[in-house]
Amino acid sequence: MPVLKLNPAHFSLLLIMLFLLLPSQALYADENALSVSDTGGAIEQLKQLDLADLLEVDVTLDDVFDIFDALVQQQNVQVATGSKQSIARAPAVTSVISAQDIEATGARDIDEVLEMIPGFHVSRHSTAYNPIYSLRGIKTDFQVLMMVNDIPIDTLYTGGRNAVWGGMSVKQIARVEVIRGPGSAVHGADAFAGAINIITKNKNDIDGTRIGSRLGSYNMRDVWLEHGQKLGALDMGLVLEYQTTDGHDPLIRRDGQSTLDQELAHYAIPALSFAPATANLQRKNLDMNLDLGWKYWKLRLGYQGHYDTALGINYNNILDPKSRFEDQRYRADLTYHNPLIADNWDVTTRLSYLDMQSKATENQIQTRPGFTVPVTTGQDFLNYPEGIIFNSGINERQMRLDVSAFYFGFEQHSLRMGAGYSYGQLYEITHETNIDPVTGMPVPLAAGLLNLSDTPYVFLPEEKRKSWYVFLQDHWKFYENWELTTGLRYDHYSDFGGTLNPRFALVWQPIPKLTAKLLYGHAFRAPSFVELYNQNNLIVQGNPNVKAETIDTTELALNYYVNDRLHLGVNIYTFNWQDALQFQFSPDLHKYIVQNNERRKGQGLELEARWKVGKRLSLLANYALQRITTKHINVTSTSQDAYLRADWLLMPKWYLNAQLNWVGSRERNPVDAREDLGAYTQIDLTLRYKDIRYNHWNLAFGIRNIFDEPVIEPSTISEFGEARLPDDLPMPGRNYFIELSYRF
Amino acid sequence: MSMKCCCLSFLKGGLLGLLLLLPSLPQAELVIRESYVKAVLLFNFTRYTQWPESVFQAIGSPYRICVLGQDTFENALTELDAAVEGETIREREIEILRIESIEQTQSCQVLFIAELKNYTLQEVFAYIRDYPILSVGNGEDFILEGGMIAYYQQGTKVRFAVNPQAVNEAKLKISANLLQLARIINRQ
């Protein structure tokens, strides 16, 4: 259901309109006029204004180079404890990326943004090229909590993001805060390897009205509108963004069907695979975010729609050019935050709602028509003349009530406490197929698809989960230059019971320039509904008796401010990951069943540097090394990545950003016979025209992967140790974009 | 992997023309600089804050607004001068003082801390902690490091944030009117 259709001609028209709409005097605005002005007169005028009006005066910024100060100095986070703190002293290892960073690097999707974070790498699933967020060497994707405005958006269904994620556009983002490390003592479930909090723009983050468009390779088109306005006492911020792309058409030489074709060739069974062919990764995204603020109240409404999303490669690792998915997410929260509610009290109350709906809009062909499998070796064959069709729909809702408060009344302590309740359910699971669930035999399509929804044969029952929590956190300045943060959170789940997650952080600042932190945290990941309840599957089955995975992490972090222009950070960590959930073969059931039977240990190192070299150049670099040992099979794998970013002011108003992303070689699972996948280096350039004084026009030209490096992400192996996509997953080669926006 | 033809032709047609138009011509409008608004705000912070009477050495002692470090005010102290010119607060005159060392802060009521060369922020805060001095600086980090009032930029507007605890700890009182307009940052 494409609600919006924009063809190239419309885009061009939009840009031309954009140009025509430009108020003519904007072209003649000039910064030279600065030197003229009558200081005394201007100030006299300003003094006549009342204070509220004074804050609304449009000013000419004094320092053109402010942008570089911001890159190096303004580094604070809220995600570590719920209260704003400088990154150096926050009792966790954190990173922050602002809208300014996103603009400078030309990032278009949250995945590109997260790649800037030390130890964070976004690799790919074969299915729909869904992103896998791996942090600190933990590469299974469900161990990173993702939040929008402090509210989790992970699904109950998979425990990660939606089954067909479809991306998240970035114009709505004011900042992204990331905890690298455990965060369950503050954020609860799934803040395991880390937690990502995406903070959306409000009226104050949006300066008037801006419209813009971006055109790029792979028929990528993007239009957006940002609008911030005061309506009486009401602050309104609105962001709309619509993106479409045909996808980068990665060439898949062999897919899951190719392997089978090869085996069946002996029996003169015709090959079915599309490979070699390109995978269709087209998608259309619509993002809307409305932020209303009134006194201490805030109402935020968000919508994310993905239409016409192609799978490209399906769950069986078979090229699938025709399948289409539609996915919609609705977010709403009503928040009351009063930082001055009473002497020494700062209170926040929030009611939130999240609804996620995804469904197949075209038949999901699991295997192509004519699909044949041997039943007994070389003797009998089972034939599916119309292929195997499996259409699924997943609808899920989550409601939460959270209350938290800070108390500052004690001399050396500040306390934070809170409690909350959440209710989540899969409210509509649909399941259509052309396979008889009893006999396993195909049913002719002419008879229509079998609807197994709400029957015992459905792939997942419509389960629900209730949970509540309480937490207490104490921040104690117990001695000069020493601070201790202690936190304890208890969560109780209706389906797998209770979990207690403590954390300790000792922060020592022996000299103002140096901060040392010793951190310990316990965190958990809640089993997903797939892990608990997956059923009627020939190969894998959920297990309602599993419990949460846990992790204990100990970290040592140092921040050294050499001077105002150069900041260095280093940290080392070690973790012990217990009760890891894994599919294990059960000889009784002849299936793989989920069990808490794995233990992993990991260690790592992260280095960071931010350097404002001069008024025209700033550099940022980070490097991460991580090692993880899986006890069960006694295998250790090591991975590394590095990121380097430079921002230059080439000449007044022209900025050049270069970023280099190096990903070290990817070791294969020992049962995977393939050679390790080599390292790659991707370099991107973004040239931007921006007048920060008036900030009307903003023009950018970008090249991604400038040297056309073959960037390849590893494909995974099946339960049987086969690489169904033996040639891995190619990522985009050199590609371009041009972007233009105008602020009224 | 090249851009599709529609983008290219559009590029040649429209955008190059646009680029040529971007350099601009002068206009003659009264320009309000960031520092003007900051100067007027600084005066207002002084006006809307109450100090313990004991800080003034004599009945007629003035309010002292001190500026430490290099800043836009450095070359243009005239802005601050203009902002306080002819003004009195509770019958006291206002004096603008540019200082070089933290020892000189003792006699200040308001300390604007600009880009510091010889000190770190923490050193300054450690020194002034024992005096009832209203500290004002730039950027949210200023508050997170221990400052009381910080200017921050929002698009082309100058705004300010306040940490009420820090103000209270220094035995100062900021009027509710001022707090209402501020972003409150509670620091742990």
Molecular shape of chain B: globular
In the CATH hierarchy, what is the architecture of chain A at level 2?
Beta Barrel
Shape annotation of chain A: globular
The rounded Rg of chain B comes to: 22 Å
Determine the CATH topology of chain A: Maltoporin, Chain A
Domain count of chain A: the total is: 1
Structural class of chain B: alpha/beta
Structure report:
The complex is a heterodimer of chains A (744) and B (188). Chain A is built from nine helices and 40 strands. Chain A is mainly β. Chain A has one domain: TonB-dependent receptor, beta-barrel domain (Maltoporin, Chain A, Beta Barrel), CATH 2.40.170. In chain A, the strands form seven sheets. Chain A has a 22-stranded antiparallel β-barrel. The longest helix of chain A is centred in the N-terminal third of the chain and has 14 residues. Chain A is globular, with a radius of gyration of 27 Å. Chain A starts with 7 loop residues before the first helix and ends with a strand. Chain B has a domain of 129 residues: Rossmann fold, CATH 3.40.50. The N terminus of chain B is likely disordered. Classes of the chains: A mainly beta (744), B alpha/beta (188).
